Amino acid sequence: TCRILGGKAFLLKTRINAMNNHESKITHLPLLKCFVNAEENRREYSIPRHQHCDYEFIFLISGNYEYQHNSYTGRLLPGQGFLLRPGDWHIDRIYANTHYQAVNFIIKDDELDLQQEHIDEKQLVVTDVNGTIQRILRDLQRENNTSDIFAPPLKNVYLQELYWQVMRLMPHETIDGNQFRDTGNLQLAKALRQAAMRHISRTVSLPELATLLKLSPRTLNNRCHEFFAMSPLKAFMKIKMEIAVDFLTQTSMSVKEISEYLGFQNPYHFSKAFLRIMKISPSQCRKSRQP
To answer: Which pTM was predicted?
Structure first.
């Protein structure tokens, strides 16, 4: 394998395997959609406001690159990059004599978000202090320009290394710990979400929730504290609040209508619970995601 793929690729695969064998099992992989190497030498231009459907990492090699990321306006310096997430709004402004690269990818896990909710967009900017990101991007660009049968798997190998190196450079408090959840965590999270969807409009007790999940109350309590560091009912409520975020950002339902749908006595109790769990009010949440 080393002779066919090259020693460098073999070492990369070894690194990925070592990460996957970490005591906190990694259960997801990034998959490449496209790689863009953009060198603009003649003119200055802007890309109008648009919403991202997938993840995208944009890295500035040289020149000037300004952008608006949701409500945050920023400017990259050469050697810096930032991460866009599904649902983010974005405006690009690229100046003449600018060279940047963009990596568009998806995560093969419907339940996963890479970052904690409602973090400051400027925390998604990383600085390539030792040249690691540029080196990986050069390798990725080389394979993107290669058409043999080994190029597609090698591109995803380099994407995986890029992904974890970018995660390493992020402030650790912004990273969603669910990236390192194990199979039991995944199954329990999925079961809790299904139960929340089936019983979205009413309150459930711990014994009732345990019965729905076919566990004893004690086992459910222990697993929720082990996997999520919270009680089962708090985890259940957090899922309902995440559903509320979808309603607030993707529909025109009023806070009163969302409150009633989620089984709250009144909008005041809903707003109080939402603020406590999501650290932002429903109105602020809706305003922050408006196009």
So the answer is: 0.54
